[in-house]
Amino acid sequence: MTNKYAFIGGGNMGQAIISGLVSAKRTDVSNIIVADPSQEVRNHCAKNLGIQTCPSNQDAILDADVVIFAVKPQHMHSVISELKFKKGSTYLFISIAAGIRLDHLERLLGKNQAIVRCMPNTPALVHSGISVLVATEETSAAQRLQAETLLQSVGKTIWIEDEALMDAVTAVSGSGPAYFFLLIELIQKAGIRLGLPSELAETLAVETAVGAAKLAQQSPDTASELRQKVTSPQGTTDAALNIFSNSGLEDIVNLAITAARDRSIALSKEN
Ligand SMILES: NC(=O)c1ccc[n+]([C@@H]2O[C@H](COP(=O)([O-])OP(=O)(O)OC[C@H]3O[C@@H](n4cnc5c(N)ncnc54)[C@H](OP(=O)(O)O)[C@@H]3O)[C@@H](O)[C@H]2O)c1
After folding, report:
1. Ligand 1 pocket, 129 CB below 6 A?
2. Averaged pLDDT, 54-80
3. Quick one: what percent of the chain has pLDDT higher than 90?
4. Structural domain of residue 19, as residue ranges?
5. For residue 2, what pLDDT is reported?
6. Ligand 1: does its nearest atom lie under 6 Å from the Cβ of 41?
7. Which of 24, 157, 158, 210 has the most crowded CB, counting CB atoms within 10 A?
8. How far is CA 116 from the centre of its chain?
9. What distance, in Å, lies between the first and last C-alpha atoms of the chain?
10. Is the C-beta atom of 70 inside 6 A of ligand 1?
11. Do 120 and 197 belong together in one domain?
Protein backbone atom coordinates (compact mmCIF):
# COMPACT_ATOMS: atom_id res chain seq x y z
CA MET A 1 0.00 0.00 0.00
CA THR A 2 1.27 3.48 -0.83
CA ASN A 3 1.50 5.71 2.20
CA LYS A 4 0.01 9.18 2.14
CA TYR A 5 1.93 11.61 4.33
CA ALA A 6 0.40 14.71 5.93
CA PHE A 7 2.82 17.09 7.61
CA ILE A 8 1.21 19.43 10.11
CA GLY A 9 3.66 22.35 10.23
CA GLY A 10 6.13 23.09 7.45
CA GLY A 11 8.81 24.99 9.37
CA ASN A 12 12.49 24.09 9.69
CA MET A 13 12.08 20.50 10.79
CA GLY A 14 8.98 19.73 8.73
CA GLN A 15 10.71 20.99 5.57
CA ALA A 16 13.94 19.15 6.40
CA ILE A 17 12.11 15.83 6.70
CA ILE A 18 10.01 16.45 3.57
CA SER A 19 13.14 17.41 1.63
CA GLY A 20 14.83 14.19 2.78
CA LEU A 21 11.79 12.14 1.82
CA VAL A 22 11.64 13.77 -1.62
CA SER A 23 15.36 13.58 -2.40
CA ALA A 24 15.64 9.98 -1.17
CA LYS A 25 12.78 9.22 -3.60
CA ARG A 26 11.10 7.17 -0.86
CA THR A 27 7.73 8.22 -2.20
CA ASP A 28 6.25 10.23 -5.04
CA VAL A 29 5.76 13.92 -4.24
CA SER A 30 2.04 13.48 -4.96
CA ASN A 31 1.82 11.41 -1.73
CA ILE A 32 2.97 14.30 0.47
CA ILE A 33 0.95 17.26 1.68
CA VAL A 34 1.90 19.93 4.21
CA ALA A 35 -0.46 22.18 6.14
CA ASP A 36 0.91 25.45 7.45
CA PRO A 37 -0.78 28.79 8.25
CA SER A 38 1.99 30.74 6.53
CA GLN A 39 1.47 31.49 2.84
CA GLU A 40 5.22 32.05 2.55
CA VAL A 41 5.97 28.57 3.91
CA ARG A 42 3.36 27.01 1.62
CA ASN A 43 4.77 28.80 -1.43
CA HIS A 44 8.27 27.71 -0.50
CA CYS A 45 7.22 24.06 -0.05
CA ALA A 46 5.26 24.00 -3.32
CA LYS A 47 8.03 25.70 -5.33
CA ASN A 48 11.11 24.02 -3.87
CA LEU A 49 9.79 20.61 -2.84
CA GLY A 50 7.03 20.19 -5.42
CA ILE A 51 4.53 18.93 -2.84
CA GLN A 52 0.90 19.81 -2.24
CA THR A 53 0.17 22.41 0.43
CA CYS A 54 -2.91 23.73 2.19
CA PRO A 55 -3.73 26.13 5.02
CA SER A 56 -6.11 23.70 6.74
CA ASN A 57 -4.78 20.90 8.93
CA GLN A 58 -8.10 19.07 8.59
CA ASP A 59 -7.90 19.13 4.77
CA ALA A 60 -4.32 17.86 4.92
CA ILE A 61 -5.23 14.70 6.84
CA LEU A 62 -8.23 13.77 4.65
CA ASP A 63 -6.40 11.08 2.64
CA ALA A 64 -3.42 10.59 4.91
CA ASP A 65 -2.45 7.45 6.79
CA VAL A 66 0.83 8.83 8.18
CA VAL A 67 0.41 12.12 10.05
CA ILE A 68 3.56 13.94 11.15
CA PHE A 69 3.19 16.66 13.77
CA ALA A 70 5.98 19.22 13.23
CA VAL A 71 4.60 22.24 15.08
CA LYS A 72 6.03 23.86 18.19
CA PRO A 73 5.28 21.93 21.40
CA GLN A 74 3.01 24.71 22.71
CA HIS A 75 0.80 24.35 19.60
CA MET A 76 0.41 20.57 19.78
CA HIS A 77 -2.60 20.57 22.10
CA SER A 78 -4.74 22.94 20.04
CA VAL A 79 -3.63 21.46 16.71
CA ILE A 80 -4.51 17.87 17.65
CA SER A 81 -7.70 18.75 19.55
CA GLU A 82 -9.12 20.44 16.46
CA LEU A 83 -8.52 17.46 14.14
CA LYS A 84 -11.21 14.90 13.37
CA PHE A 85 -9.87 11.55 12.25
CA LYS A 86 -11.91 9.08 10.19
CA LYS A 87 -13.42 6.37 12.39
CA GLY A 88 -12.18 2.88 11.51
CA SER A 89 -9.08 4.15 9.67
CA THR A 90 -5.61 3.09 10.71
CA TYR A 91 -3.12 5.90 11.19
CA LEU A 92 0.50 6.13 12.09
CA PHE A 93 1.08 9.33 14.09
CA ILE A 94 4.60 10.71 14.35
CA SER A 95 5.40 13.61 16.67
CA ILE A 96 8.69 15.46 16.64
CA ALA A 97 7.56 17.98 19.26
CA ALA A 98 10.14 18.22 22.03
CA GLY A 99 8.88 17.28 25.48
CA ILE A 100 5.45 15.96 24.45
CA ARG A 101 5.29 12.49 25.97
CA LEU A 102 3.54 9.46 24.53
CA ASP A 103 0.92 9.39 27.30
CA HIS A 104 0.09 13.03 26.52
CA LEU A 105 -0.20 12.20 22.80
CA GLU A 106 -2.45 9.24 23.67
CA ARG A 107 -4.70 11.54 25.68
CA LEU A 108 -4.99 13.82 22.64
CA LEU A 109 -5.18 11.19 19.90
CA GLY A 110 -6.97 8.41 21.77
CA LYS A 111 -5.86 5.13 23.34
CA ASN A 112 -4.60 2.15 21.33
CA GLN A 113 -3.08 4.28 18.58
CA ALA A 114 0.16 3.76 16.72
CA ILE A 115 2.22 6.74 17.86
CA VAL A 116 5.93 7.34 17.43
CA ARG A 117 7.61 10.10 19.40
CA CYS A 118 10.81 11.24 17.83
CA MET A 119 13.67 13.59 18.72
CA PRO A 120 15.51 14.66 15.57
CA ASN A 121 18.19 17.37 15.40
CA THR A 122 19.01 20.23 13.03
CA PRO A 123 21.71 18.46 10.97
CA ALA A 124 18.58 16.84 9.48
CA LEU A 125 18.62 19.96 7.29
CA VAL A 126 21.67 18.52 5.52
CA HIS A 127 20.47 14.93 5.89
CA SER A 128 23.07 14.21 8.58
CA GLY A 129 20.79 14.19 11.59
CA ILE A 130 20.31 11.64 14.32
CA SER A 131 16.77 10.84 15.43
CA VAL A 132 15.83 8.87 18.52
CA LEU A 133 12.45 7.14 18.40
CA VAL A 134 10.10 5.58 20.92
CA ALA A 135 6.68 4.11 20.16
CA THR A 136 3.46 3.06 21.87
CA GLU A 137 2.89 -0.69 22.31
CA GLU A 138 0.15 -0.51 19.69
CA THR A 139 2.67 0.49 17.00
CA SER A 140 3.23 -2.57 14.80
CA ALA A 141 6.62 -3.66 13.49
CA ALA A 142 5.58 -2.48 10.01
CA GLN A 143 4.62 0.96 11.38
CA ARG A 144 7.90 1.21 13.29
CA LEU A 145 9.67 0.48 10.03
CA GLN A 146 7.59 3.17 8.28
CA ALA A 147 8.60 5.77 10.89
CA GLU A 148 12.22 4.67 10.81
CA THR A 149 12.34 4.82 7.00
CA LEU A 150 10.86 8.32 7.05
CA LEU A 151 13.41 9.62 9.56
CA GLN A 152 16.29 7.79 7.86
CA SER A 153 15.80 10.07 4.88
CA VAL A 154 17.39 12.83 7.04
CA GLY A 155 20.03 10.80 8.87
CA LYS A 156 20.42 7.94 11.29
CA THR A 157 17.79 6.53 13.63
CA ILE A 158 17.98 4.79 16.99
CA TRP A 159 15.06 3.22 18.88
CA ILE A 160 14.77 3.36 22.64
CA GLU A 161 12.29 1.37 24.70
CA ASP A 162 12.45 3.52 27.85
CA GLU A 163 10.81 6.88 27.11
CA ALA A 164 12.30 8.37 30.29
CA LEU A 165 15.63 8.53 28.42
CA MET A 166 14.17 11.10 25.99
CA ASP A 167 15.05 14.04 28.26
CA ALA A 168 18.72 13.04 28.29
CA VAL A 169 18.55 12.39 24.52
CA THR A 170 17.14 15.90 24.05
CA ALA A 171 20.01 17.32 26.11
CA VAL A 172 22.69 15.40 24.18
CA SER A 173 21.60 15.23 20.54
CA GLY A 174 18.52 17.51 20.30
CA SER A 175 20.34 20.54 21.72
CA GLY A 176 23.78 19.11 20.90
CA PRO A 177 24.42 20.84 17.55
CA ALA A 178 24.42 24.21 19.35
CA TYR A 179 27.25 23.07 21.66
CA PHE A 180 29.42 22.27 18.66
CA PHE A 181 28.45 25.55 16.96
CA LEU A 182 29.59 27.37 20.10
CA LEU A 183 32.91 25.57 20.09
CA ILE A 184 33.45 26.37 16.40
CA GLU A 185 32.60 30.01 17.15
CA LEU A 186 35.03 30.19 20.09
CA ILE A 187 37.88 28.50 18.19
CA GLN A 188 37.31 30.91 15.30
CA LYS A 189 37.40 33.92 17.67
CA ALA A 190 40.59 32.65 19.31
CA GLY A 191 42.20 32.24 15.86
CA ILE A 192 41.27 35.82 14.99
CA ARG A 193 42.78 37.04 18.27
CA LEU A 194 45.99 35.28 17.27
CA GLY A 195 46.04 37.26 14.00
CA LEU A 196 44.30 34.95 11.51
CA PRO A 197 42.05 36.65 8.94
CA SER A 198 38.39 36.05 9.89
CA GLU A 199 37.56 33.97 6.82
CA LEU A 200 40.60 31.75 7.29
CA ALA A 201 39.82 31.27 10.99
CA GLU A 202 36.23 30.31 10.12
CA THR A 203 37.26 27.82 7.42
CA LEU A 204 39.86 26.24 9.68
CA ALA A 205 37.44 25.92 12.61
CA VAL A 206 34.56 24.50 10.53
CA GLU A 207 36.66 22.09 8.44
CA THR A 208 38.50 20.86 11.52
CA ALA A 209 35.16 20.16 13.22
CA VAL A 210 33.87 18.29 10.13
CA GLY A 211 37.10 16.28 9.80
CA ALA A 212 37.27 15.44 13.50
CA ALA A 213 33.61 14.35 13.49
CA LYS A 214 34.15 12.14 10.42
CA LEU A 215 37.24 10.60 11.98
CA ALA A 216 35.39 9.93 15.24
CA GLN A 217 32.55 8.39 13.22
CA GLN A 218 34.69 6.20 10.94
CA SER A 219 37.64 5.21 13.10
CA PRO A 220 37.45 2.09 15.29
CA ASP A 221 39.15 4.17 18.02
CA THR A 222 37.08 5.91 20.68
CA ALA A 223 37.09 9.73 20.85
CA SER A 224 39.34 9.46 23.88
CA GLU A 225 41.84 7.25 22.01
CA LEU A 226 41.82 9.58 19.00
CA ARG A 227 42.52 12.54 21.29
CA GLN A 228 45.42 10.73 22.98
CA LYS A 229 46.90 9.77 19.58
CA VAL A 230 47.16 13.41 18.48
CA THR A 231 48.53 14.61 21.81
CA SER A 232 52.31 14.32 22.15
CA PRO A 233 53.56 14.98 25.67
CA GLN A 234 54.71 18.60 26.04
CA GLY A 235 53.46 19.37 22.51
CA THR A 236 51.06 22.07 21.26
CA THR A 237 47.84 20.02 21.63
CA ASP A 238 48.95 19.01 25.12
CA ALA A 239 49.39 22.68 26.04
CA ALA A 240 45.83 23.49 24.97
CA LEU A 241 44.22 20.38 26.50
CA ASN A 242 45.92 21.08 29.85
CA ILE A 243 44.21 24.47 29.96
CA PHE A 244 40.81 22.87 29.19
CA SER A 245 41.31 20.26 31.86
CA ASN A 246 42.70 22.64 34.52
CA SER A 247 39.79 25.03 33.89
CA GLY A 248 37.23 22.34 34.72
CA LEU A 249 35.84 21.83 31.19
CA GLU A 250 34.44 18.39 32.08
CA ASP A 251 32.45 19.82 34.99
CA ILE A 252 31.18 22.68 32.80
CA VAL A 253 29.98 20.25 30.12
CA ASN A 254 28.30 18.05 32.75
CA LEU A 255 26.56 21.04 34.28
CA ALA A 256 25.41 22.34 30.90
CA ILE A 257 23.99 19.04 29.68
CA THR A 258 22.32 18.35 33.02
CA ALA A 259 20.69 21.80 32.82
CA ALA A 260 19.36 20.97 29.33
CA ARG A 261 18.01 17.62 30.60
CA ASP A 262 16.32 19.34 33.58
CA ARG A 263 14.80 22.00 31.28
CA SER A 264 13.44 19.24 29.05
CA ILE A 265 11.76 17.60 32.07
CA ALA A 266 10.29 20.96 33.16
CA LEU A 267 9.03 21.75 29.65
CA SER A 268 7.27 18.41 29.33
CA LYS A 269 5.40 19.20 32.54
CA GLU A 270 4.35 22.60 31.16
CA ASN A 271 3.00 21.30 27.83
N1 LIG B 1 14.69 22.76 15.48
C2 LIG B 1 15.22 21.78 16.20
O3 LIG B 1 16.42 21.70 16.45
C4 LIG B 1 14.36 20.67 16.70
C5 LIG B 1 14.96 19.50 17.14
C6 LIG B 1 14.12 18.47 17.58
C7 LIG B 1 12.75 18.64 17.59
N8 LIG B 1 12.22 19.81 17.18
C9 LIG B 1 10.77 19.97 17.24
O10 LIG B 1 10.27 20.16 15.93
C11 LIG B 1 9.08 20.92 16.02
C12 LIG B 1 9.11 21.98 14.95
O13 LIG B 1 10.25 22.81 15.19
P14 LIG B 1 10.77 23.80 14.06
O15 LIG B 1 12.12 24.23 14.48
O16 LIG B 1 10.56 23.18 12.72
O17 LIG B 1 9.72 25.00 14.28
P18 LIG B 1 9.20 26.06 13.20
O19 LIG B 1 10.26 26.32 12.18
O20 LIG B 1 8.61 27.19 13.96
O21 LIG B 1 8.04 25.26 12.44
C22 LIG B 1 6.75 25.12 12.93
C23 LIG B 1 5.80 25.47 11.79
O24 LIG B 1 4.47 25.17 12.21
C25 LIG B 1 3.65 26.25 11.80
N26 LIG B 1 2.43 26.31 12.60
C27 LIG B 1 2.13 27.11 13.67
N28 LIG B 1 0.87 26.87 14.08
C29 LIG B 1 0.37 25.91 13.28
C30 LIG B 1 -0.87 25.25 13.20
N31 LIG B 1 -1.86 25.53 14.06
N32 LIG B 1 -1.06 24.32 12.25
C33 LIG B 1 -0.07 24.01 11.37
N34 LIG B 1 1.14 24.60 11.39
C35 LIG B 1 1.36 25.54 12.33
C36 LIG B 1 4.53 27.46 12.02
O37 LIG B 1 3.99 28.58 11.34
P38 LIG B 1 4.26 30.06 11.98
O39 LIG B 1 5.74 30.24 11.95
O40 LIG B 1 3.51 30.94 11.05
O41 LIG B 1 3.73 30.02 13.38
C42 LIG B 1 5.84 26.97 11.43
O43 LIG B 1 5.89 27.12 10.03
C44 LIG B 1 9.01 21.48 17.42
O45 LIG B 1 7.99 20.84 18.15
C46 LIG B 1 10.35 21.19 18.02
O47 LIG B 1 10.24 20.87 19.39
C48 LIG B 1 12.97 20.81 16.70
Report:
1. no
2. 96
3. 93
4. 5-166
5. 84
6. yes
7. 157
8. 14
9. 35
10. yes
11. no
φ and ψ at residue 126, rounded to 5 degrees: -115, 25
Atom of ligand 1 nearest to the CA of 14: 16
Last residue of one domain, picked from the residues 113, 147, 166: 166
Q: What number is the average pLDDT over the span 68-93? A: 94
Whether the model clears a pTM of 0.85, i.e. scores above it, the answer is yes
Q: Is the pLDDT of residue 151 over 90?
A: yes
Residue 72 Cβ inside 6 Å of ligand 1? The answer reads yes
Residues 136 and 85 both lie in one domain: yes
